[in-house]
Amino acid sequence: MQKYGINPEKGLEFGIYTLGDHLPDPHTGERISEGQRLREIVEYAKLADEAGLDFFSVGESHQEFFVTQAHAVVLSAIAQATKQIRLGSSSTIISTSDPVRVYENFATVDLLSEGRMEIIAGRASRVGLFDLLGYDIRNYEELFEEKFELLLKINEEEVVNWSGEFRPPLRNAKVLPRPVNGSLPIWRAVGGTPASARKAGYAGVPMFMAHLGGPVSIFKRTIDSYRDAARESGFDPAELPVATAGFFHAAETSQQALRDMYPHINEGMKRTNGQGFPKQQFAQGVDPHNVMNIGSPQQIIEKILYQHEEFGHQRYIAQIDFGGVPYDRLVKNIELIGTEILPAIRKYTAKK
């Protein structure tokens, strides 16, 4: 685990991720400027760092209603504004990027942040960027597999010799600069299906599993499949960290949390995905055995501890800001995480 910056002795890590969405507040219809949204994301990361959280990550989405298309640039600003918190992408769409350029960018931010950088590589759930960046969507799977493999090779070898189908070959190529510790933790993003998770297991890389909600039992099967595949390929699953990520909102009561958050999720998904989030399905987010973490601080503590018991994962990453959530509500949630939720999770999951 140490290879990936994880110390199991400290217990379950708690992080935050943002997709960098730029949506109006559904209650007021007002949308802040792009510049203000970007500055608030940097401040959001700074608050998370000051509250003692373990991880903060930024995603890229190349369509209307998002502002972090240049997510490595945003992470560079965050690296300068924070001191301790580990940083990452969530995710970097490696299919439509040059792995050499990605590695150069993230190794540079790693040096600026004194060794706090990680890459989570994904395939894109919104596929408009294929046309925008000049790639053929029909090569969706092949592009990811080839470029992810090259990214891993660059991470392991300072001088690279490589050839593939979608990029010119590399011959005795030095990819510089190198990160502080010689390599970066590189995770593979999966969407929650066992088939996707098994590919991460076969590759012997850490798995970042994002989800929109559902019974914990379903996602446990996905994680079990990942570990089985790793074992079949000769890797030790005990050395491969797992992270889960999904919707989070804490309020005084579960009813208040649902009322606060549902309009943001529903209206935000209508604009970015073309359809809203079913209200009954979202209401199940307060169920003790649902993977979504919506409720009072005590309810969320119990839900996360239950998930940790079932998954045996090393990092939980909350998405709090989707759908034009007002900044003061983000501040309140960070305060609740730092003062109530995180201390309890560490108390019960750290090794004595």
From TrEMBL:
<dbReference type="Pfam" id="PF00296">
    <property type="entry name" value="Bac_luciferase"/>
</dbReference>
<keyword id="KW-0560">Oxidoreductase</keyword>
<dbReference type="InterPro" id="IPR011251">
    <property type="entry name" value="Luciferase-like_dom"/>
</dbReference>
<dbReference type="GO" id="GO:0004497">
    <property type="term" value="F:monooxygenase activity"/>
</dbReference>
<dbReference type="InterPro" id="IPR050766">
    <property type="entry name" value="Bact_Lucif_Oxidored"/>
</dbReference>
<protein>
    <submittedName>
        <fullName>Luciferase</fullName>
    </submittedName>
</protein>
<dbReference type="InterPro" id="IPR036661">
    <property type="entry name" value="Luciferase-like_sf"/>
</dbReference>
<keyword id="KW-0503">Monooxygenase</keyword>
<dbReference type="GO" id="GO:0005829">
    <property type="term" value="C:cytosol"/>
</dbReference>
<dbReference type="GO" id="GO:0016705">
    <property type="term" value="F:oxidoreductase activity, acting on paired donors, with incorporation or reduction of molecular oxygen"/>
</dbReference>
<feature type="domain" description="Luciferase-like">
    <location>
        <begin position="13"/>
        <end position="309"/>
    </location>
</feature>
